[in-house]
Amino acid sequence: MRKVHIPFNRVDIQGNEFEYIHKAISSAHISGDGIFTHKCNSLLEKELGVKKSLLTTSCTHALEMSAILLDIKSGDEVIVPSFTFVSTVNAFVLRGEKYRIGYAESDDGQTFTRMDEEVGIGVSQDGWDSDMICYPCVFDLHDMRYMIYCGNEYGKTVFGLAILDSD
Prior knowledge:
Layout: H1 17-26, H2 35-48, H3 59-69, H4 86-93, E1 104-105, E2 113-114, E3 134-141, E4 144-150, H5 152-155, E5 159-163
Helix pairs in contact: 3-4
């Protein structure tokens, strides 16, 4: 097996970045809503043809503001990818949502058909996975299919191992 190193965060310097950093520090305003925030907002508004854009300090903040603005309540359905950062789901779980595993298929990668009944596992009546089943990892080993997953509170106390029945 060949190992490949894929850098996750890498600074990409293209031109005037150091000059802009110097200007921000010299202005004594290095937090949000400074001159570069305003320039970026203006550019986004012009390019996107929108009345107003809003920059956030992180994707987590953007998701949390979206959940608030959408008035997400317990029982609403929010679909997120299975491979994602924990904070993607937190914005909605904090508002009463329960994380469940779903399943969908697509022939073209654009249009998906939900087939959640095909998942084959749901929350338990009570116990460590009665509220939440999350972060599944499905794998095959010795002609068997397994799924490792987390339960309530993102697997705070334990994680589970499910084995697919071949019947």
